[in-house]
Amino acid sequence: MLVLTLSVSIPGIKPPDCSMANAEDCEQTSILQLAVFFGALYTLAIGTGGTKANISTIGADQFDETDPKEKIQKMSFFNWWMFSIFFGTLFANTVLVYVQDNVGWGWGYGIPTLGLAISIFVFLLGTPFYRHKLPTGSPFMKMTRVIVASFRKANAPMARSLTQFHELPSMEYERKGTFPIQPTKSLRFLDRASLKTGTTDQWNLCTITEVEETKQMLNMLPAMFATFVPSATVAQVSTLFVKQGTTLNARIAGNFSIPPASLTAFVTVSILISIVLYDRVFVKVTRKFTGNPRGITLLQRMGVGMIFHILLMTVACFTERYRLKVAADHGLVHQKGVKLPLSIFVLLPQFVLMGIADAFLEVAKLEFFYDQAPECMKSLGASYSLTSLGIGNFLSSFLLSTVSKITKKRGRGWILNNLNESRLDYYYLFFALLNFVNFLFFLVAVKFYVYRAEVTHPVDVKEEEANVMGVEENE
């Protein structure tokens, strides 16, 4: 953030001013300016990738699942975790955007840089009070050993008795504060990694628990793949949705206008309201019918979010079609930088629907990958959610450039610098269909998914769930 702040403050490395409405007339940036700016962005991305998965994990790890009260509190943790994140996003999309547009980019980046420094200091102050889990080694190394060992013993006959598979004594797991995992029937090929064949080095022999941990991480991959397209849809908010806003009348009253970039604040407000309603109303109502402490399962919540993605892109398609009609009716199709006689708030429905979709999908996605990951791989599980967002952004860029090139070759391009000459409605319809196909893939991917059994307490899982439900009803 410090380099990013300097890149928009120091003459020479500061990019020239540019208006999104007249992008073709902008002065070309130098290689040095691009290198510094994108270098700062990628450094920020690397730092985010190293901390974001771990910070949510350490937060969830503060709850003791052997305590019924803390366990039920943990079920709401990710709702309020995401609430706090999006509350910060709301500040960024309103106050910081205003500062960037009216004061300067130096202050616009300088304020969050200072805020980040303060947050690091506050986080470090709490270090003595956190519940820490002992490191258990690299999860990637453990998974690699399981895969290598299973391939090395690919031709070995499969054993029929559990005694022929390697496992540590229960005391070893209790000493580490963990529990052994019983063998499952999924991905049976990997079971060979724990098959006793005489060789005992770690690249030839793994424990049953290590094999099952690897299975759990691999079993979640189809669900992660199904989140790539929705993540690409999320990327449209800060790109094409905002660019649509630059062509519309942003005046609210008098001389006050809303910056197009601030439209994303409506997504955030929608998320904040939806999360509160979900946690305080939806869960309590649906729990009475389903008997599930969460109301609905995490995968069902993700599925509902995907349905909203299909709906919002369909709404965006019809909204854009109406915007193009207004441009044509007023003879403004070929005019550059001219505002259409149409309020910017016509885009409000698609921003609100995106917020509702995120309240279902994004929260459930983070909680699902954390919850279903083995105890020693929680951070890796949480990183699945971030991986989805990252790949979704790259997928969005790929689809945008590919569709733009293909449609330009065949005539009128769908995505041009002048949106009034473009056919974004076709592109949004393409995204709606893509989300529909992806939803079908999601249904197939999760049809046979089996939720990980909770093995964190020496009592029966069903008895523990009943106790938790009893505590909730009493409250």
Automatic annotation (TrEMBL):
InterPro entries: MFS_trans_sf, POT_fam. It comes from the Eukaryota. Keywords: Membrane, Transmembrane, Transmembrane helix. GO terms for cellular component: membrane. The keyword Cell membrane does not apply. It is a multi-pass membrane protein. One of its GO terms (molecular function) is transmembrane transporter activity. Its main location: membrane. Gene3D superfamilies: MFS general substrate transporter like domains (1.20.1250.20). The keyword rRNA-binding does not apply. Belongs to the major facilitator superfamily. Proton-dependent oligopeptide transporter (POT/PTR) (TC 2.A.17) family. This is Major facilitator superfamily (MFS) profile domain-containing protein. It comes from Brassica cretica.
